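Listing S7. Sequence submitted for prediction.
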Amino acid sequence: MKELLNYKIMKKKKNPKFMRQEFNKRIRLSRSSWRKPKGVDSKMREQRGGHRPIVKIGYGTPRILRGRLSDGSIEKRIYNKDDLNSLNKDEIALIPRTIGNKLRLVLLKEAQKLKIKVSNFKNIENKIKEIEDEYKLRKEKRTNLKSKKNSKLKESKPKAEKKEKPKAEKKEKPKAEKKEKPKKEGTKEWILNYKKN
């Protein structure tokens, strides 16, 4: 395995950078990744001298090492404790970013007990401290907010009682009688009245 890893490192150094055709003429092409040239008259496709190399199977790494890290281990995503316990010797844990801090804390503590490496957290102890400190700050904020709310409620209660006492009964105003609106021309009622008169 070590020989293969050394061979992979040596090969990677020798391999050219595969750039897209005309990457030096158009800025947007320099930003994009490798694309195979498919033009009918493309010199790069025909692999003429003086043109950039094309991706070929010969440049690839050995099949055994594909998907492995530089130390030869394989990353495995972990979502719960059972996944941690089922890791093999050549596998490293990877805690995805979609997992919340509560579960992340549990998984990190478990990994620390079992002495398992986590690829995206090199220093597990620091990360555990960081998450716990965050929780402490949150708790303090919540307790402060609750105490402020309670104090405001206590202050507002006597004011509300004082306002209620001086309220007097409102006098009922007599309702005005509705005036009849003049009828519009062209309606049935207007025509009947007109005929009578």
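Caption to Listing S7: primary sequence and predicted structure tokens for the chain studied. Residues 124-164 form the longest helix (41 residues). Residues 66 and 191 are 97 Å apart (CA to CA).
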